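User: Second chain of the day. Same drill as before.
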Amino acid sequence: MLVGHSYGGTLITKAGIHDRVGALVYIAALAPDKDETSQDQQDKFARTPVFEHIDIADGRIWLLESGIGDFCGDLPAAEQKLVLATGAVPVPDLFNQQVPGTAWRTKPSWYIVANNDRTVNPDLERAAAERIGAKTYAVDSSHVPMLSHPDFVLDVIRDAAKTLEA
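Assistant: Same format as last time:
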C-alpha cells in the first residue's frame, strides 16, 4: 500500500503501477491523470491562499512564515514553527513535471479530503476522490490532517490495509 500527501499523491499515482502495490491512500493530495501534470490539475480550481506566501530562491520553493497558517493553521503555534522549519523545499518546476503511470485506474483507492485546506483546494480534493473512485473520508482540517487528526488518518489507512489482508 502506498500513502501520499499533497504532491505525494502524484508520486503514488505514478509509482503505484508496480504490481507489488495493492492499494493507494491519498491525503489532501493531487492525483493527476495520465495526460495531466500536477499543475494542470491545480489550474482547474481556484488558487489557494498559500501561494501568496511563497518565495522562489536558490532553485527552490520556500514557504514564507506569513503562509504557515494557510498550510497548517489548525496546529498549535509551536508545531506550526516546526513544520515551517522542517518542510520540504521543492524545485520550481515540480508541478509541471510529467511522469507516466496512473495507478488509481487499476488499484483500489482511499482519499482523505481536508475540508479547511488552504494549500490544495478542497474542491480539487473532492473532484479527485470522485474521479478516481476512491472510498472518501472528509475531516475539518488544514492541509496536514495526519498531524492535526492523526487517529482519523490512521483509521483510514487501517481501513485500506484490510483490503490487502483478504
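The mean pLDDT is 96.

User: Great, on to the next one.
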